[in-house]
């Protein structure tokens, strides 16, 4: 039976209308609703399903971020994880995927996890790098953008979503997996489970405990809204279209 | 089949061409010109048949039965028009009304037909409307779940049908499914203001479940008068059927304040269904608090798990507000009670499994002291139901008359003690009033969000409506009405939790204030929509109809004034 570690991230709720700050330094986050990254919910659901199939014996949910991330961790616990790890980092925006990957790798090692499941990307950063980087740091095999997962205790047969369709792979554990949208439909955190989750243990850590330096290595120069869509132009025939494209320097 | 190949290649410039097919001579005439077709039908080689089978243009041309020349002409013209307009290629669904003609003299055609049909059977069944609906719902669910994910659209079907799913989504937007954009905490009508972390988590859980299970279907249930008993039963695993029932019988053991928060979050998505769940909760609590250990063990776990659903029966045709004048008789006969009488306006009657009925056990005592509460299961002989009432709102519920004709129940079904029934009923109603008031809050919140979005979109006199000062001030007034109602309801709920001696009149105040004000809020929001607010396509008219009854049931607002003034002026 494997032990699964699941990474969850607290992001701005997907239903919120995002607004850019007037000075272009970032996005308005104060008093805006946050919740668990949808892909992380799917990752937790996949881990919980492994536990229900008696393939996983324990699920450890971990999150990196400020103290409000404890809500996200509680949701993960309410969905079925057994215990949590919270790495307290006051400024999550300043971290890069590389630093997150280093921390995730360390947590996977200390918790003696056999599988590390994550969402394929987070809807605020949209990097999609963390899972692959973590696998590289751990020197574990990786399978990203999963469409389905079948684990038989030692190996896993996975289907990945690629541009051409679905690719089936076999992967040995320990491994890093990142899930895509269609692998499952996450369950609701029911009220009874939320109450039970209050009793589950959560370990608090600092980045220094994991030996990772969280000094910012990236500077955000500017954040702006995408340009508003302009009116299009209807051309008479194919020649006019080619002419216009040539004028615009596109071809 | 082969002749039509010629049409495709020669007439690709999409002119309108008069085409006639001379069946007897097996000729096609283009624009009057005759063209003899090669007699190759007998020897259609495998490669030709294969090519024909794979051509998209001949999807629904299957040699199945007769077709007239006009049909053929019409179909070709339609296809040319579609290609001109650049529509997506149609799916391979054979339309039984327009098949390709089979000439009576078809030797070779017969061969061709067999192979074409065989190939078609292998590929796809005709798509029914049910399949299309399923696909649209799946696409909509996927879109609602994660509208920003471009994802790897390996689901090619969904890409091809993306038109229909976007239309379905737009339709659901107009029906209000998308108005639940996450409100920021800086909004004055943010329902989470003043709540602690635990309460926010419960509110969030209820919001998520309601948005997925209730919201998209509320309008449909109202239009079809469909009672979603299966959804109500499925809410049991979320804990919504025993919110303030004790944990040892399967309830959640939440406080009344937390219950009010959960109910408010749920009713934002569907008011009638949530109201029904609160009535069930009330019955479950009544048995939990007043029942003997045997009764608690027999009924409460089944109520909280959704195995049985409860109804509350107090009102009679002859006594509504004057509840203590109820006339249903209950006579002891050996080890049974025999009940005679009727109850009216019972929500869930006929469908629900357990009825908590207030009856008069002591005919000599007029008034509250002669009343007791008896639990009657649905299939008790002597218990029958009237016809469904046609109502203004709460249309998804069945509301019927309950008729008891020598209805026998064992004495062990008595809840509490004889003569204490009215107290049980009234103590249940305190919480019931907070619940109904919370349902009003949710409905008003949905209306406010819808109106707010509309004002930002609709233009008049050159600018959007939300730059008109009157409407801005009107929205401020409505928001104030909503928030004061919310505060009153939560205060009353907290008063019950703290066993405040003024709890009964505070609950009456909360019910009076919230139901009236939230109805005004819903009505005001409907007005913001203008003519569109009157249409069933938009959410406000259903909210107005559903909230109207909240000022009437669980104690009419006039009776609430009676309760408040009595307590106020007796001090």
What's the short story on this structure?
By secondary structure, chain A is an alpha/beta fold. Chain A has six helices and eleven strands. The model of chain A has no long low-confidence stretch (mean pLDDT 92).
**What is the mean predicted local confidence, pLDDT of chain B?**
81
CATH topology heading of chain A: Rossmann fold
Provide the domain count of chain A.
Answer: 1
Number of strands of chain A: 11
Domain Acyl-CoA dehydrogenase/oxidase C-terminal (chain B): 419-569
Protein name (chain B): Isobutyryl-CoA dehydrogenase, mitochondrial
Domain Acyl-CoA dehydrogenase/oxidase N-terminal (chain B): 197-307
Enzyme class (chain B): oxidoreductase
Task: Please write out the topology.
The complex is a heterodimer of chains A (251) and B (571).
Chain A lengths: L1 E7 L1 E3 L21 E3 L1 H15 L3 E10 L3 H11 L3 E6 L8 H14 L4 E5 L10 H9 L3 E10 L3 E8 L2 E8 L2 E5 L11 H7 L4 E4 L32 H10 L4
Parallel strand pairs in A: 1-4, 1-6, 4-5, 5-11, 6-10, 7-10
Antiparallel strand pairs in A: 2-3, 7-8, 8-9
Helix pairs in contact in A: 2-5, 3-4
Chain B lengths: L1 H9 L8 E4 L4 E4 L2 E4 L9 H9 L14 H17 L22 H16 L5 H17 L10 H5 L1 H13 L22 H17 L4 H7 L4 H6 L21 H12 L3 H20 L2 H12 L5 E4 L15 E5 L2 E12 L6 E7 L10 E7 L5 E3 L13 E12 L3 E2 L5 H37 L1 E2 L2 E2 L4 H29 L5 H26 L11 H9 L8 H13 L2
Parallel strand pairs in B: 4-7
Antiparallel strand pairs in B: 1-2, 2-3, 5-6, 6-10, 7-8, 8-11, 9-10, 12-13
Please provide a written account of the structure:
The complex is a heterodimer of chains A (251) and B (571). Chain A is 26% helix and 27% strand. Chain A has six helices and eleven strands. Chain A has a nine-stranded mixed sheet, sandwiched between helices. A two-stranded antiparallel ribbon of chain A has the order 2-3. Chain B is built from 18 helices and 13 strands. Residues 1-12, 40-44, 51-59, 88-117, 119-123 and 148-179 of chain B have low confidence and may be disordered. The chains are: A alpha/beta (251), B alpha+beta (571). Chain A binds chain B through residues 13-17, 30-33, 35, 38, 71, 74-75, 78, 123, 145, 147, 161-163, 165-166, 180-182, 188-192, 194-195, 198, and chain B through 142, 145-149, 151-152, 154-155, 180-186, 197-198, 200-202, 204-206, 208-209, 212, 237-240, 252, 254, 262.
């Amino acid at each position: 039976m494997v032990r699964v570690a699941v990474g969850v991230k607290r992001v701005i709720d997907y239903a919120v209308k995002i607004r850019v700050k007037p000075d272009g330094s970032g996005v308005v986050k104060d008093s805006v609703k946050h919740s668990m990254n949808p892909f992380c919910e799917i990752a937790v659901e996949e881990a919980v399903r492994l536990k229900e199939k008696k393939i996983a014996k324990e699920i450890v949910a971990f999150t990196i971020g400020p103290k409000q991330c404890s809500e996200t961790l509680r949701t993960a616990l309410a969905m079925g994880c057994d215990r949590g790890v919270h790495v307290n980092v006051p400024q999550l925006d300043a971290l890069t995927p590389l630093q997150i990957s280093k921390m995730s790798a360390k947590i996977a090692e200390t918790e003696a996890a056999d599988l590390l499941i994550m969402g394929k990307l987070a809807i605020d950063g949209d990097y999609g790098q963390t899972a692959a980087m973590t696998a590289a740091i751990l020197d574990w095999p990786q399978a990203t953008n999963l469409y389905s997962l079948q684990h038989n205790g030692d190996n896993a047969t996975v289907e990945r979503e690629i541009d051409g369709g679905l690719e089936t792979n076999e992967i040995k554990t320990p491994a890093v997996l990142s899930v895509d949208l269609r692998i499952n439909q996450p369950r609701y955190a029911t009220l009874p489970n939320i109450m039970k989750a209050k009793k589950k243990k959560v370990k608090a850590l600092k980045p220094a405990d994991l030996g990772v330096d969280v000094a910012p290595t990236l500077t955000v120069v500017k954040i702006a809204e995408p340009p508003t869509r302009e009116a299009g132009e209807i051309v008479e025939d194919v020649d006019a279209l080619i002419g216009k494209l040539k004028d615009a320097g596109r071809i | 089949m082969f002749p039509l190949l010629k049409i495709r290649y020669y007439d690709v410039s999409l002119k309108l061409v008069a085409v006639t097919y001379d069946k007897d001579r097996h000729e096609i005439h283009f624009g009057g010109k005759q063209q003899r077709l090669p007699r190759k039908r007998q020897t259609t080689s495998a490669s030709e048949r294969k090519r024909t089978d794979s051509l998209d243009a001949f999807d629904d041309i299957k040699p199945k039965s007769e077709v007239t020349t006009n049909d053929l002409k019409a179909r070709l013209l339609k296809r040319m028009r579609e290609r001109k307009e650049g529509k997506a290629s149609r799916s391979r669904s054979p339309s039984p009304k327009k098949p390709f003609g089979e000439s009576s003299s078809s030797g070779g055609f017969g061969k061709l037909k067999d192979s074409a049909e065989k190939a078609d059977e292998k590929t796809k069944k005709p798509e029914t409307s049910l399949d299309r609906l399923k696909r649209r719902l799946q696409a909509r669910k996927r879109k609602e779940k994660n509208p920003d994910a471009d994802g790897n659209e390996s689901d090619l079907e969904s890409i091809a049908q993306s038109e229909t799913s976007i239309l379905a989504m737009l339709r659901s937007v107009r029906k209000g499914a998308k108005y639940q954009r996450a409100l920021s905490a800086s909004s004055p009508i943010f329902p989470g203001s003043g709540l602690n972390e635990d309460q926010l988590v419960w509110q969030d859980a209820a919001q998520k479940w309601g948005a997925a299970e209730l919201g998209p279907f509320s309008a449909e249930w109202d239009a079809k008068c469909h009672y979603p008993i299966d959804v109500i039963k499925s809410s049991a695993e979320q804990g919504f059927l025993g919110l303030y029932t004790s944990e040892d019988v399967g309830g959640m053991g939440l406080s009344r304040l937390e219950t009010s928060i959960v109910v408010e979050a749920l009713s934002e998505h569907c008011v009638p269904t949530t109201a029904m769940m609160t009535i069930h909760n009330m019955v479950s609590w009544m048995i939990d608090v007043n029942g003997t250990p045997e009764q608690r063990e027999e009924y409460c776990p089944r109520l909280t798990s959704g195995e049985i659903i409860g109804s509350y029966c107090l009102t009679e045709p002859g006594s509504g507000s004057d509840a203590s004048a109820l006339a249903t008789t209950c006579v002891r006969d050996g080890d049974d009670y025999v009940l005679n009488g009727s109850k009216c306006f019972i929500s869930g009657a006929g469908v629900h499994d357990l009825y908590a009925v207030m009856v008069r056990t002591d005919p000599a005592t007029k008034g509250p002291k002669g009343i007791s509460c008896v639990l009657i299961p649905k299939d008790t002989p002597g218990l029958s139901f009237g016809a469904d009432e046609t109502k203004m709102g709460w249309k998804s519920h069945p509301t019927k008359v309950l008729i008891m004709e020598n209805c026998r129940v064992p004495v062990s079904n008595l809840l509490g003690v004889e003569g204490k029934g009215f107290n049980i009923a009234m103590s249940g109603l305190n919480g019931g009033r907070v619940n109904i008031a919370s349902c009003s809050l949710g409905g008003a919140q949905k209306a406010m969000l819808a109106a707010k979005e509309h004002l930002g979109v609709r233009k008049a006199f050159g600018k959007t409506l939300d730059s008109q000062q009157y409407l801005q001030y009107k929205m401020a007034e409505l928001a104030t009405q909503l928030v004061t109602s919310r505060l009153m309801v939560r205060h009353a709920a907290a008063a019950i939790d703290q066993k405040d001696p003024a709890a009964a009149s505070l609950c009456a105040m909360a019910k009076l204030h919230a139901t009236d004000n939230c109805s005004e809020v819903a009505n005001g929001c409907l007005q913001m929509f203008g003519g569109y607010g009157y249409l069933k396509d938009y959410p406000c008219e259903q909210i107005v109809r559903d909230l109207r009854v909240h000022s009437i049931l669980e104690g009419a607002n006039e009776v609430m004034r009676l309760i408040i003034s009595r307590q106020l002026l007796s001090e």
